[in-house]
Amino acid sequence: MADGLPELQHRLQHVFLDQSLLGRALTHRSFSSDHYERLEFLGDSVLNLAVSDLLYIRLGNLSEGDLSRVRANLVKQDTLHQLAVSLGLPQVVKLGEGEVRSGGHKRPSILADVLEALIGAVYLDAGFAKAQGLVHRLFDAVEINPQMEAIGKDPKTELQEWLQGRKMKLPLYKVVGTLGAAHKQSFDVECEIPELRLSERGIGGSRRSGEQAAAAAMLQTLKTKMSHLKNLN
Question: In the prediction, which pLDDT does 150 show?
Fold first, then answer.
């Protein structure tokens, strides 16, 4: 077993039945074609559901919109980066030489993505209850209170609330392309609102930042259209 992995599993309080899942969750695309991005995609959804459940229990008096805003603050890159560092992920993530030279072991976007991939790996290895337990343990060390709702909204949250306020479905995000070398990659992400037949694109240094850029572009489009409609009236 690779150096540091037994200790990591002790910190996770989960020993993988399928050790290949753990290895994949820690592998960046610059190191191998068998990398963590699919697990990250899965872990992102598991994380959001587990955090939603946690907030529903702890902050039961908050409205849907306020719960969404608190959740956005908990699953944002900065918070996930801090949790990843506390787990010792910088010491075990596997990166290509170029990414190592550019400081990838310390890059918040990579470490946040690896944490999501680990959550996805636990889900595949042992089911939702185990993954949920991991998420709850991770956030035991994070202060969660109603005042978090006052923190500024990120574009994804603002777009979600705009749509929810109009009884519309949430937007769809997908990576439509990647740009640059593996150690300096950018993600081209599309944000689509099928009900409005609208789509916008955004580019970021990680899938998450690409989604935020696409959401910001969509918000600008919606504001422009709303302003145009007001002028017509």
Answer: 46
Q: Which of 94, 125, 151 is the last residue of a domain?
A: 151
For the record, the structure tokens of 124 come out as: 């595949």
pLDDT in tens, 118-141: 999 999 999 999 999 999 999 988
Range with the lowest mean pLDDT among 116-125, 175-184, 217-226?
175-184
Q: Please count the CA atoms within 13 angstroms of the CA of 74 that sit on its side-chain side.
A: 30
Distance CA 125, CA 121 (A): 6
Residue numbers of the domain that contains 117: 1-151
Q: Could you tell me if 164 and 187 lie in one domain?
A: yes
- How many other C-beta atoms lie within 10 A of the C-beta of residue 207? 22
For the whole model, what pTM was predicted? 0.72
> Do residues 216 and 202 make contact, with C-beta atoms less than 8 angstroms apart?
yes
| Whether residues 69 and 81 fall in one domain | yes
74 plus 186 within the same structural domain: no
What is the longest distance spanned by two Cα atoms in the chain?
68
Catalytic residues: 44, 116
CB atoms within 10 A of CB 32: 13
Q: Which one-letter DSSP state was computed for residue 94?
A: B
> Tell me, what DSSP letter sits at residue 54?
H
Is pLDDT above 60 for 110?
yes
C-alpha triplet 191, 205, 2: angle, nearest 5°:
115
For residue 182, what pLDDT band results from cuts at 50, 70 and 90? low
The owner of tokens 């998450």 is 208
- Do residues 44 and 63 make contact, with C-beta atoms less than 8 angstroms apart? no
